[in-house]
Specification:
This protein is α+β, with helices and mostly antiparallel strands. It is built from 25 helices and 17 strands. A four-stranded mixed sheet has the order 15-14-16-17, sandwiched between helices. The C terminus is likely disordered.
Length: 691
């Protein structure tokens, strides 16, 4: 619509004569977008972007829709026709329009601010919801191309998280075959995504979604929230399998972010557009122009290795967007190639009589040459806003990578675009991003966040997702070796989140503070979509915080988590597939005793780093890692104030020349160990089986 309607002078005249046009950046003001998207979804049964909504002067919605063609066609009214009809209705039926808009907002407000009938979840509901969601996802699984559902295919990481979590629970309950089936779906889906065109093989990272069922031709936009979540599920898969295929992809994502998406002070940018110019000075931008290739370009750039590369990535002179009916229905990419791996690397190397490492090295060199040429093309627009919530997701993945990737063999070879850095460098990225937010988007006096930063903080306040996602990232920063300062900040943010968003009587969190009267709806969001819902992440945060502190603080966190989940009882019972992360959260809350791994020792040592890596060396979402140096006054005072048992445990098990580890569960602790291998063996009990 930007090109078809909003750059059209005739449309512009109608808009300027009859309307006051307001353009909303839905990433900067998700609260405003939520109001009017909810209205359109409720009224017309569907929504999406671009979103056009017509409002009264007091901001009540009158009518709206998503895409309107410029002219009437296919039985649909064009945008100019819509503008004339709205003007006519406003002139002749104004009272009816205003009343219906006000009534719609009242009804939506009532429906979307549900309260819990009880402070507790019914017995058996968490387990049933978890199983129901896994069952529903399994039924939608695409056994041919991977993923859940049909085209267009979105990489919805919360689905992967649910299936991995469910597999872990099946393994623990003595059902290894069911566990294998769950992880098999996950691993095949992640492999298909990584080999598909949705993955940027030249520069790293993932595009927004695939228009076809085989993950081949994407919508080429790159979003930070996808990168952070996908890096985490590939890290989880590496933790389960120890297959470097998954660690390479997580590195590929994180190295892309480090290279292209981080500002000079450490804030991580939000997105790269799908469209760019074919050449400098071109009048129009085209979808995917930066990323696609003709076979001649590849032949000219790669020379003797072009044949190897072309076979590996299914490159053809006629173009390769022919794998599915939906791949290129309008012939936009005729003669062009979107890189996709359709054959096994080992088989192709064997066919050429070449050792696999040499084959992969040549591929890496080819990708570097193409990257250098691509870098000279006009780039897609970089959206350099720093959004707190999305940075929280990325902080989590960078922090976790710093420890989980230490499970790679020291002899591992890396090829472009993977850098192969020391995993500790990822921790530095995570801490710089967190410090950027603290410095620029957090008020130390009021303990409040602002939502985003671009040439200064935005006027928009922090929303629920900003608090919840950042708290989650800070908890991962601490558990992966960061200072207790991150825990202190996380608890401060949790207190402020409760003050601003918590419905203390009805349970759960609203999405906005409710302080801006022009934002007409406060919603208790539960849907885990491309991003998880703030309520799902908050429930997990509360469970994690409760496992770190003791006494009334721990009880308070757990009670808020259970009250929150009780609000969404019907959703968990009837529509579990819409809330996969919330299903995990409900089960986490009901776990009788969360595993605690307590490390005691000096933190500046190599031994501490190795023990911390061992603590994170297996997949277990129901574990908490606590590390403490009893000689550090700040740390010991923090634990004395928040969990005196941890402080006592640290004093009783401190050894000046080694790092001691205890694994505690069901109110008992293992004898202390000082060897990473011993700790790994203790922690890895009941981890999912490798397929």
């Amino acid at each position: 619509m930007e090109v078809e309607s909003f750059e059209n002078e005739e449309v512009a005249k109608l808009l300027n004569d009859w309307f006051v046009s307001i353009k909303v950046d839905r990433e900067e003001r998700p609260d405003v977008d939520k109001v009017y998207m909810t209205y359109v979804q409720a009224l017309y049964g569907g929504g999406g972007w671009p979103l056009s909504v017509f409002l009264s002067p007091d901001l009540k919605p009158l009518m709206g829709g998503t895409y309107f063609p410029p002219e009437d066609k296919y039985g649909r009214p064009g945008f100019k026709t819509i503008l004339r009809k709205v003007k006519d209705a406003w002139d002749n039926k104004r009272d009816m329009l205003v009343k219906s808009g006000a009534f719609a907002i009242e009804q939506l407000s009532e429906a979307l601010s549900a309260s819990a009938g009880s402070n507790q979840l019914p017995d058996g509901l968490p387990q049933n919801a978890l199983c129901l969601c896994a069952e529903q996802l399994s039924k939608s699984y695409d056994s041919r191309f991977g993923g859940f559902g049909s085209a267009p295919k979105f990489p919805r990481p919360v689905e992967i998280q649910l299936m991995l979590y469910h597999s872990k629970k099946l393994e623990e309950s003595g059902k290894p075959e069911g566990a294998k089936e769950s992880v098999k779906m996950v691993f095949f889906s992640l492999q298909c995504m990584a080999r598909g065109g949705i993955h940027d093989h030249i520069g790293g990272g993932f595009h927004r979604y695939s228009v076809d069922e085989c993950w081949h031709v994407p919508h080429f936009e790159k979003m930070l929230y996808d990168q952070g979540q996908l890096a985490n599920v590939y890290l989880d898969s590496f933790n389960i399998t120890r297959d470097v295929f998954y660690s390479f992809i997580s590195r590929d994502i994180l190295d892309y972010l480090r290279r292209d998406m981080i500002g000079p002070e450490g804030g991580i940018f939000s997105a790269e557009d799908a469209d760019s110019a074919d050449f400098e000075g071109a009048n129009r931008k085209k979808e995917g122009a930066f990323y696609i290739w003709t076979s001649k370009e590849i032949d000219d750039i790669l020379g003797e290795h072009a044949g190897l590369f072309n076979e590996h990535y299914y490159v053809k002179p006629s173009g390769n967007c022919d794998l599915a009916r939906m791949s290129d229905p309008h012939n936009e990419f005729k003669g062009k190639n979107v890189l996709i791996e359709r054959n096994d690397s080992s088989a192709l190397a064997s066919k050429l009589g070449m050792p696999i490492q040499e084959y992969l090295h040549i591929l890496g060199e080819c990708k570097k040459k193409l990257f250098d040429v691509r870098s000279r093309r006009p780039r897609p627009h970089l959206d350099d806003k720093v959004i707190v919530s999305w940075n929280g997701l990325a902080i989590s993945s960078f922090a976790r990578a710093s420890k989980i990737l230490k499970g790679e063999q020291q002899s591992t070879d890396f090829n472009f675009p993977v850098v192969g850095c020391n995993p500790n460098e990822y921790m530095e990225v995570a801490e710089k991003a967190a410090n950027f937010i603290r410095r620029h988007l957090y008020n130390e006096q009021t303990h409040r966040l602002q939502h985003s930063f671009r040439n200064g903080p935005s006027k928009a306040p922090g929303f629920l997702d900003d608090y919840a996602f950042l708290i989650s990232g800070l908890l991962d920063l601490y558990e992966c070796g960061g200072s207790t300062d991150w825990l202190v900040w996380a608890s401060e943010l949790q207190d402020m989140q409760d003050e601003l968003f918590l419905d203390r009587e009805g349970g759960a969190y609203f999405n906005t503070p409710g302080e801006d009267p022009s934002v007409l709806l406060r919603v208790k969001e539960d849907h885990d979509g491309a991003e998880p819902s703030g309520n799902s992440v908050s429930a997990i945060n509360l469970v994690r915080l409760a496992s770190m502190v003791s006494g009334t603080n721990s009880d308070h966190y757990r009670q808020n988590a259970e009250h929150l989940l009780a609000v969404f009882e019907t959703r968990l019972k009837d529509m579990a597939m819409a809330v996969p992360l919330m299903c995990c959260a409900a089960d986490m809350l009901l776990v009788p005793s969360r595993k605690q791994i307590v490390l005691v020792g000096h933190k500046s040592s190599v031994e501490f780093e190795n023990m911390l890596a061992a603590a994170h060396a297996s997949y277990d979402p129901n574990k908490t890692v606590i590390h403490i140096d009893p000689t550090n006054t700040v740390e010991i005072e923090f634990w004395e104030a928040n969990n005196s048992k941890v402080a006592t445990m640290a004093r009783n098990n401190f050894a000046a020349d080694k790092v001691m580890a205890l694994v505690c569960q069901n109110f008992t602790c293992s004898p202390p160990v000082s060897s990473p291998k011993s700790l790994e063996n203790m922690v890895s009990k009941n981890s999912p089986s490798v397929v």
